[in-house]
Design goal:
The chain has a single domain, classed as Decaprenyl diphosphate synthase-like (Undecaprenyl pyrophosphate synthetase), CATH 3.40.1180. It contains nine helices and six strands. The protein has a six-stranded parallel β-sheet with strand order 3-4-2-1-5-6, sandwiched between helices. By secondary structure, it is of the alpha/beta class. Helix 4 links the parallel strand 3 and strand 4. The structure holds 3-methylbut-3-enyl trihydrogen diphosphate (2 copies) and magnesium ion. The site of one 3-methylbut-3-enyl trihydrogen diphosphate has 11 residues, from strand 2.
Amino acid sequence: MQDKLENYSLSLKHLAVVMDGNGRWAQERGLPRNLGHEQGVESLKNLVRNCTEMGIGFLTVFAFSSENWARSKSEINFLMTLFVRTINNELTKLDNQGVRLTFVGDKYGLPKSLINTMNVSETKTRSNKGLKLNICFNYGGKWDIVQGIKNLIKNDPDLLKNYNSLTEEIFSKHLSLSESPSPDLFIRTGGEKRLSNFLLWDLAYTELYFTDTFWPDFNENHLKMAVDFYYSRKRKFGGTSETNNLIETPEEKRQVVKCGN
Ligand code: IPE
Ligand code: IPE
Ligand code: MG
């Protein structure tokens, strides 16, 4: 295992994380679930710092899913309050670290204080050049695709008449993560091996890593293990090891084929 964080920067540009297991972490200790969420915030702060040190450009985390409304009212209220408190407490520090914050998800129906916090922090950090931190809140991959279709129709109505010219590339510009490259590595903590409606479109060719470690326990060493896993993979994007030595993504491959014609 490499031990210097800087050695990990190579080509891992975008990390996506499902931060799961807060409730079970607390329950195992005889504590209320909410304490697990509070401890989970500490893991997220460490992850942001580690990503910055590693030179990872983009970090996308799942903080609250479209389906998490199925939880008890008190847990939902706690999560909303914790979110506002954490962003307010951390904003100056994140700004000083050069972090650019973006909130991804359906803002409709969220408390006004939460929307206000999101808007203020997005505006304050907009021109930062460091880590781009996408926080998915009230987010669902299916919601994202549907809002992408609505966005496309609204902004490009001519495409409706000329729908054969629609391409994956054009459509993806209307999705929430259009300003981030596709995630290279996905990590889910907490033992479950599912996406739970996270980035359905964006994860199409991402390397998937699952660990039983609960999110509040996830630290720099766990991150290094996940990154080691990533660098042990041979990414082929549908090609073979030989054809993909020089060409990284299917888009680049298409470019090469077009140029050769
Ligand atoms: C993830 O931890 C945090 C959120 C979904 C907000 P959980 O709360 O799902 O923890 P477990 O899975 O019940 O242990
Ligand atoms: C996924 O975790 C959502 C977040 C981490 C925010 P869940 O705990 O909600 O997922 P399920 O219910 O186990 O699929
Ligand atoms: Mg869970």
